[in-house]
Amino acid sequence: MEIDFNEYQLRCELRGHEDDVRGICVCGNERIATSSRDKTVRLWSQDPSEKRKFVSSKILLGHTSFVGPIAWIPPNDEFTEGGVVSGGMDTLVLVWDLKSGEKVQTLKGHSLQVTSITLDNGDIVSSSVDCTLRRWRNGQSVETWEAHKAPIQAVIKLPSGELVTGSSDTTLKLWRGKTCLHTFNGHADTVRGLAVMAGLGVLSSSHDGWGFISEHTFKSNQYCIPALHQNNILCFTCFYWYSSLRLWAVSGQVLMEMVGHTAIVYSVDSHASGLIVSGSEDRFAKIWKDGVCVQSIEHPGCVWDAKFMENGDIVTACSDGVVRIWTVHPDNIADQLERDLYASELSQYKTSRKRVGGLKLEELPGLEALKIPGTSDGQTKVVREGDNGVAYAWNMPEQKWDKIGEVVDGPEESGRAFHDGVQYDYGQFPVVPLHSLLALSSSDSFLINFYFCGSVFDVDIGDGMPIRKLPYNRSDNPYDVADKWLLKENLPLSFREQIVQFILQNTGQKDVTFDASFRDPYTGANAYVPGQPSRTSDASAKPTFKHIPKKGMLGFDTAQFDGILKKITEFNSALQSDQEKQNLSLTELDVSRLGAIVKILKDTSHYHSSKFADADISLLLNLLRSWPISMIFPVIDLVRMIVLHPDGATMLHKHFQAENDILMEVIKKVTSNSSIPANLLTSIRTVTNLFKNSCYYGWLQKHRSEVLDAFSSCSSSPNKNLQLSYSTLILNYAVLLIESKDQEGQYQVLSAALEIAEEGNVEVDSKFRALVAVGSLMLEGLVKKAALDFDVLSIAKAAKASKEAKLAEIGSDIELVAKQS
Fold first, then answer.
1. Least buried of 89, 216, 276, 526, by fewest C-beta within 10 Å?
2. How far is CA 293 from CA 257, 261, 284, 692, 798, in A?
3. What GO cellular component entries does it have (predicted)?
């Protein structure tokens, strides 16, 4: 189908989702299905009264966490109006009948988030962060295989019948059945999206990374370094950040590379006309023709997905929760008012994201702030004038604010500066001449004026000398940066402390402690610096984190022993009065033995020497096996405390190691009958307490997947005690699996922790512990890249915006880890 390409314009907006829209599938000519972080799938149908618009016709509820991939089942004998298949963070693949809007199949098997879905001759094929592909037929898993050694992000079916997968390991793989026919190498980072390009091959989208060119025309995402080449000709090498699309032949040959996005490209799709569309974190959907970007459609948020409709219109899924359709057909273009409203929304979004001096433009005070006198000569103030931030300095002798100039900043938080081929943390932030801060000694005849440009300070040393560049990253030790720069520029070391203080003030680190000892950056030697104390340490400073990495295990170590005994006695009396269950009741010796157990547990001062008898442990285990499930929670609570006792833990451990594992037996029994919250609470806390004794580490790792799956429902429970217990279990597992370097386990724990962090109704302490698990896994584990793939930065930013101090602090920790190379 040919399209006479004209500029795409807004057709309509589909509003209804309450969070990011993550996935799109086009269901014929008149329907669209979308998935969202709000845990829903929505079906949108063409409005019969106004054909250019779509209205929400069905909301499909069934996932327990955010929904990502979604695929269409065309009408057939089973689904007369078609169906959709969706995959979620909850590890489930769900099949829906679009006629009824009902869930008809729940496909369980993946251990981590489902990332992509495709159909293959009636079969469903799904990919997951657990590194596997699964083939489902008639509601059953019929094939499973590890297709990559890292999370699989995408899977598609070729017209010839083969499957193609894309992975975080940077490769694509071509599959016939479970046999890999070819591995496509070429991308430099995670492959996020795949699509078929009819008649040509496979399209892929990626994070990729750095490239370089040698040209004299520079663009906004290019950063140039002068260098002397042969014949003393000054040339420029231009580095740029790119996220690319590639077109591959099925043989693995790269036919075309399309570069233009400046952040992660999450999706790619093609149309029979030859057009290609891509969606990116840079907020643009880009349209490509013959390898060239012919249009960039800006959005007020990340474009998670973009798909063509049969008529060439484009559907986009945005992080603002809105689905938008874009058209080149004049009859379908939105009216002028709708287009103006969208332009206004886009402008407001950009203004809200624009930062000046590290602050949001909209948060700056207006000109009225200049009516308040300054308190010291040279004091600076940035105010908002229209859409710009303008810096003023207080002139003490004349008692007025002198205008210095406009403050320039990157448009968003992600703007980062480059110097000597290195990318730095902050967006552009030229500040003001700092005459008052840099009170130099009388022997120094010049002033140094600083401007902060995206973590690259412009330094004006006066006397007509050229501007010097001083780069800085938040993870750097500012003393080391100042030392290296002063030596490089042949400037007096007496400027050192003044430079450092300015860096700290303007990077929000004035309360952070750094090692101030001098080390020659080229030789490592120490030197005398006037005004500085003598130091001998030469340890490099590391970034300072408030809450990570987590060390040690958490537990639940308090109990109401009298209440436990009272409840057991109450249940025992009920059994004695029931003729059919009298044989389950306790003997007098049993009651006495339980009293002795509690006495030992109460006497914590003698834990080092007190012992349990074999009969004590046998009694408890027998009650767990024989008593009705509604009565076992006080017994489980006693076991919870026994695992904290050195001797009790050792004796119980013997039973857990046997083939007939009583603890797993209880966990399965309790979680399959989750209508009794007390059972769930006592059992999850018992497992959590196992981490306090290293003899259980082997058991915990062996049963990790079973345990986490069994208790996963606790993450969304309305019971706050269950939420906190589950988050604590997740955090303990993170610590253990970091220590054991178990990457597969870390993936599962990361996925579970992120699910808690994204849950809207989780109480503060639970969310905090989940975020500590995420941050610790990123900092010291093996899954940082996977966390970034999961869009952990948006979770960190949400935490930073919290009014709860500790959530804001852990959000900052995670953001700092994410920015570390």
1. 216
2. 11, 10, 12, 57, 33
3. cytoplasm; nucleus
